[in-house]
Structure formats: structure tokens, C-alpha cells
């Protein structure tokens, strides 16, 4: 009974840590709670089976992302016209017959809606909303990884998502981010998403960054990389001068629509 109580307290403290810091590694669990790495791994498996965490490489995040459902729904409405224009331009750039990775998020959902006009696409995405839209296209082939479905955005993520993405080669990775700071650093709020997106970028011939102007000057929780790592930026308003200079220096094509 005492061991069970200790395990329950450890799980509660572990979840409290995740609510504050959003990620915990196996090493952190072992050190913080004075347990073996095997016990730390079993803790994460138990919590994942309960739907409370999602295991990542070397650790775990909360099953729900830091953003709440109300905020996400508001983002779907905000800048909707601009996101629709971004989606149309990305669909034009992609063309028919492409193999694509499609990120999650409201802007990428707008991209998915416009991609329904294309033919013979092969798409890998962990967004169930985007997958559902594209599944209505008879000529499209859509692959999604296994895992838990996040209520906030219908994203499907697990510790195996990165490996799933690495199985494919892409003509283009269409990605979005939570923010791009003044120094050109792209970021997201979920470490697991960052790992999956990095894998997609490495497996793609080119990377298309689709973001509305509200992301400029915003810093996110986890660094994805430099804006110079993308090939094309598609946005609704011209980036501010400091970002334009970085984009020019990095040879990034900017499409304002």
C-alpha cells in the first residue's frame, strides 16, 4: 500500500511539473524522484495509457498542448481571410501529384481545404481535421500516425510520430509555427511537434512555411530552427524590416498574398 501511495504522489507531482514546464525527460524523473530509469519509463507508460501524457523521445509532454480549446477556436476565426489566401497560394505552389507533409494548426487546416482542389496528392499529416478534408478527394492518399487525439486541435501525436514521418520522402513539407521572434527563430509550443516537423523538413526537397502576420515578433516555447531554414514563406502581410533582412540573407522566397 505504501509503494502504491508513493507512486500516486509521484504521478501527481510529475503531472504538476508538466503543467508548468510542458516537458519532462526520463533523466529528470529519475533525478527528481530518486527512481531508476526503468521506473521512470513505467510511470510514463502508465500515464500515457491513462491518456494524461504523450511519450516523446527521452521523455513526455501533457496529452493536451499548452493552448486551450477556446483559444484555438478563436485562432480559427482570427485572420481567417488571410489564412484562406495563404492556403490558396500554397495549393498553387504545390500543384498536382505531389508528396507532402502537412503540419497541424489553423493555417495548415486552411491549406488542407485548398489542397482539395489538387489531384493525386500523397499526404502525411498528424492533423485529423486536415486528413478528414483531404480524405474526401478520391485521388488523394492520406497517411496519419497512431496515437492519442488531442481534443484542442485533433492532432494525433505519440512517441513514435517522428519515426513515422521519417519513413517518407516529400516533395514539400508545409509547416506552420506558433511564433517567429525578431531574431528569426521559429518556435512551437510542443516539443513533440517540433521533433516531427524537423524530421519532415529533413525528408523534404523544400519547406514551405505558411503563417499569418500575427506570428511575426512572437516567441514560442520550443525552438524549431531559423527562418532561413525554409525555402518559401507564404504570408498575408509583408514581414517587418528586421525579418525581411534575415529572409533576404537566407535566400528565402517570400510570397505575400
UniProtKB/TrEMBL annotation:
User: Sorted alphabetically, which keywords does the UniProt record give?
Assistant: DNA-binding, Repressor, Transcription, Transcription regulation
Tell me the Pfam families matching this sequence. DeoRC (PF00455), HTH_DeoR (PF08220)
UniProt domain HTH deoR-type: residue ranges:
7-62
Any GO molecular function: DNA-binding transcription factor activity
Q: What is this protein identified as? A: Glycerol-3-phosphate transcriptional regulator protein
Q: Which organism is it from?
A: Cereibacter changlensis JA139
